[in-house]
């Protein structure tokens, strides 16, 4: 009963934040959202998750309504199964095109083939109407759009060649295609066409069903073969038109427009870019009311768009086409496999066994023991043969490396011995750097932060007790999250003496600050997200599942107050930083030896194409060889109980495998009990209007400072708009520092406090969605005389709960308690409404 009451209160509360824009009543929104949940078979048992999803639904509804009422564009928007997702969540889960570095640029530079130069294409084509397109599918929460574009193109090509429409397996590509593609972490259609050709075919959807997550490759019977593929000339819509007239064509687009999420019908004619991030299938073209369009099959389910399709404007005046559709088209040559063409695939395994020092029987026994140790079974004979072949190849590499004794480290079998290196890379890295990120880091002038610091000869944070046990990211590109939590755990240990075990899954599910869950991320982005979010939860409260899910509520146990980038390409600065605390570092793990590293100092040459986030937890010297001690996230059976030692000071400024190129570390501490907010207050908003009143409290004259003027703007603040306090006056005596204390009260209860320095700029994120405060402080030290440089910005979001926000600023030498000034911000409440809000708090606190 209490939960139901809380849900009702939350629904009304959230509506108030948007009432100025919304035309529907709170009750209408409740009914509408309930009906939507029923249609899409969704239930939110957690009251706060319900509130968060209702708020997102309302915001999305406002976008849809505004777009449709403006009638500015040739398409309409509408609700679908994604109406409860923010656009960041949507993008993270429902795209997945990944190009090799320089691929698009190379395509643009290629000399035109002229293949369709003299071809006159018909005025309109529709392969759906011709029967050459299978029903619309749904990639789900997996970045596998490339696989759906691939199967669609192969299905179409096979239909043209044989007159038969086959329904092919995307899951086989997700699980098995190791030709540069990365399952749910992205891929490219050309790579997949090539893999199918080399693999001698692709199986049916019926035999190898789609699961929306990556699994172990298994055997199936191919029913269609690919004999090659053709890239259509880039930036030539006439060539693309002729190609589509011939058969369905795989195309890449930029789907990075919020309107894509809710496209319903019409011709999508809004300007979009050319940062290609989504693979789809061009299945036709035509003209409607004078508007030329492409008909495109998507992989977001039949409830999206025009029964799963989108029409995109054609010949828009730019060579790359709408959303870059003409930049990288391609199509395969394919046909149905006849019964007498079936291929048995384990012949290469037999050949491999005959060419090694051990007998086939030796290898079978060795592989059987390995499978038993790692609890793996391959019931399918062909899959067993494939895995045995990988094991043999890997064993030969391990044996050769160790026999040569050329390097300072050894290799050994581990839980990844059945994987090819391409499969391993695809699943076990995940660092994603923004464009130009490294160049910007390298161009930054040195801070000199550790210039005069003499670091000890060796450090080991593991033996100091500042590192949690080694974890395993599993088949998810979340290394960045593990590097982040390790650094925050270490920083917390240094600041408080307590070692928390923090949640990577919360980052995978919730961090949309440029990070993409299992599709990669960056540690700096994650530090920033934790700071703005008000903290991060424990591993026990939010356990790891190795796949992206819906963000859920938990109680933060550690907060981050900032982070510091270590000067790039400076191993001495990195050494000093690691002596201070564990440091997040990025490396290139693109060496086969990484897969089977066992022990010693990894001193083999490697590159600087950073693709993996790890944690530097120490350094030292062994037999004259300097090394970094690095914690990985590939489980404790890998390496030295989950760690690797990388050679240090190798003569290159970037360090071994780029370890010194982009290090960073956070400032963090345990959240004290008096800082924790009453449970479940997130996303509560006032049930009344969004106005606020401000009153100044305390004396404007203290022992340290006298204010001549204290301005508060605007005079009638609103939620969602910043409130600024600006002061000037006299400093009565010199002081070296200025401290402040911030207290937040809601419904009469103190729920948050913070102490900090008021010299320079300070950003204070408030917990649980309450907004943030920016203090633009004194230019310390301060001398006696006039001042005019004190400003405080309070940003209360539109969903800020009603209550009193008290800001009390304290100045002195670090111990003084003289108030500079005190301000109350009170969101207007009548007595009865105040009582009702308080009752909501009580209900939520008791749930």
TrEMBL record:
Keywords: Disulfide bond, Hydrolase, Protease, Signal, Zymogen. Residues 694-827 form the MD-2-related lipid-recognition domain. InterPro entries: GM2-AP_sf, Ig_E-set, ML_dom, Papain-like_cys_pep_sf, Pept_cys_AS, Pept_his_AS, Peptidase_C1A, Peptidase_C1A_C. Residues 1-22 form the signal peptide. It holds the Pfam family E1_DerP2_DerF2. GO terms for biological process: proteolysis. SUPFAM superfamilies: Cysteine proteinases, E set domains. Residues 33-90, 367-424 form the Cathepsin propeptide inhibitor domain. CDD domains: Peptidase_C1A (cd02248). Residues 121-333, 455-667 form the Peptidase C1A papain C-terminal domain. One of its GO terms (molecular function) is cysteine-type peptidase activity. Belongs to the peptidase C1 family. This is Uncharacterized protein.
């Amino acid at each position: 009963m209490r939960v139901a009451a809380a849900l009702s209160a939350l629904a009304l509360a959230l509506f108030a934040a948007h009432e100025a824009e919304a035309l529907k009543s709170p009750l209408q929104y409740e009914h509408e959202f309930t009906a939507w949940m029923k249609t899409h078979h969704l239930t939110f048992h957690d009251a706060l998750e319900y509130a968060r999803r209702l708020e997102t639904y309302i915001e999305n509804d406002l976008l849809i309504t505004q777009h449709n009422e403006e009638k500015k564009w040739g398409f309409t928007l509408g609700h679908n199964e994604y109406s409860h997702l923010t656009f960041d969540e949507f993008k993270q889960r429902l795209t997945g095109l990944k190009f090799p570095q320089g691929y698009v640029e190379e395509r643009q530079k290629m000399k035109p083939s002229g293949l369709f130069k003299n071809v006159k294409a018909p005025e309109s084509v529709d392969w759906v109407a011709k029967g050459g397109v299978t029903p619309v599918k749904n990639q789900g929460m997996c970045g596998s759009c490339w696989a759906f574009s691939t199967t669609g193109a192969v299905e179409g090509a096979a239909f043209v060649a044989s007159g038969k429409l086959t329904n092919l397996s995307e899951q086989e590509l997700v699980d098995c295609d190791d030709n540069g593609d990365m399952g749910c972490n992205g891929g490219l259609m050309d790579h997949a066409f090539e893999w199918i050709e080399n693999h001698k075919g692709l199986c049916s959807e019926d035999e190898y069903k789609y699961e929306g997550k990556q699994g172990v490759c298994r055997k199936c019977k191919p029913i269609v073969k690919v004999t090659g593929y053709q890239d259509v000339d880039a930036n030539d819509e006439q060539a693309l038109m002729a190609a589509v007239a011939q058969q369905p064509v795989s195309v890449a687009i930029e789907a990075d427009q919020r309107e894509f999420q809710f496209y319903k019908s019409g011709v999508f004619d809004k300007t979009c870019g050319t940062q290609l991030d989504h693979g789809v299938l061009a299945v036709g073209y035509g003209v409607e009311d004078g508007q030329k369009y492409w008909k495109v099959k998507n992989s977001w389910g039949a409830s999206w768009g025009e029964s799963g399709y989108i029409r995109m404007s054609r010949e828009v005046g730019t060579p790359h086409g709408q959303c870059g559709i003409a930049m990288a088209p391609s199509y395969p040559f394919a046909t149905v496999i006849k019964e007498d063409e079936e291929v048995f695939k384990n012949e290469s395994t037999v050949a491999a066994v005959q060419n090694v020092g051990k007998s086939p029987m030796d290898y079978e026994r060795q592989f059987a023991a390995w499978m038993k140790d790692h609890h793996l079974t391959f019931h399918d004979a062909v899959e067993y043969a494939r895995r045995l072949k990988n094991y043999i190849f890997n064993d030969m590499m391990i044996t050769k490396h160790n026999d040569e004794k050329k390097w300072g480290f050894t290799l050994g079998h581990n839980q990844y011995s059945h994987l090819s290196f391409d499969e391993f890379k695809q699943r076990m890295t995940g660092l994603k750097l923004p464009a130009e990120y490294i160049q910007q880091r390298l161009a930054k002038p040195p801070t000199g932060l550790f210039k005069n610091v003499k670091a000890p000869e060796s450090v080991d944070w593991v033996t100091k007790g500042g590192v949690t046990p080694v974890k395993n990211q599993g088949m998810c590109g979340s290394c960045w999250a593990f590097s982040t939590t390790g650094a925050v755990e270490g920083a917390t240990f240094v600041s408080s003496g307590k070692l928390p075990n923090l949640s990577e899954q919360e980052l995978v599910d919730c961090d949309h600050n440029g990070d993409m869950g299992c599709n990669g991320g960056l540690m700096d982005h994650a530090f920033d997200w934790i700071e703005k979010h008000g903290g991060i939860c424990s591993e026990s409260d939010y356990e790891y599942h190795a796949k992206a899910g819906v963000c859920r509520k938990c109680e933060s146990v550690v907060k981050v107050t900032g982070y510091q980038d270590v000067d790039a390409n400076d191993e001495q600065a990195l050494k000093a930083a690691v002596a201070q605390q564990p440091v997040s570092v990025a490396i290139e793990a693109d060496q086969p030896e990484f897969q089977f590293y066992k022990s010693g100092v990894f001193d083999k040459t490697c590159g600087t194409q950073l693709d993996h986030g790890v944690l530097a937890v120490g350094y030292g010297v062994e037999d004259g060889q300097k090394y970094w001690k690095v914690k990985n996230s590939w489980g404790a059976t890998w390496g030295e109980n989950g760690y690797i030692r990388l050679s240090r000071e190798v003569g290159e400024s970037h360090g071994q495998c780029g370890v010194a190129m982009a290090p960073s570390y956070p400032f963090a501490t345990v959240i004290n009990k008096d800082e924790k907010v009453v449970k479940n207050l997130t996303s509560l908003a006032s049930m009344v209007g969004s106005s606020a009143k401000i009153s100044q409290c305390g004396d404007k004259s203290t022992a340290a400072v006298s204010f001549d003027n204290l301005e508060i703007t605007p005079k009638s603040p609103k939620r969602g708009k910043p409130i600024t306090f600006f002061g000037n006056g006299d400093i009565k005596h010199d002081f070296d520092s200025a401290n402040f204390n911030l207290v937040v009260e809601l419904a009469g209860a103190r729920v948050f406090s913070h102490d900090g320095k008021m010299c320079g700029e300070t950003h204070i994120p408030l917990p649980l969605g309450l907004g943030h405060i920016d203090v633009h402080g004194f230019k310390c030290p301060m001398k006696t005389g006039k001042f005019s440089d004190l400003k405080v910005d309070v940003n209360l979001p539109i969903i800020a709960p009603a209550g009193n926000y008290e800001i009390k600023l304290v100045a002195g030498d670090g111990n003084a308690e003289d108030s500079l000034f005190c301000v109350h911000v009170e969101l207007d409440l009548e007595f009865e409404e105040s009582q009702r809000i308080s009752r909501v708090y009580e209900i939520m606190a008791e749930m």
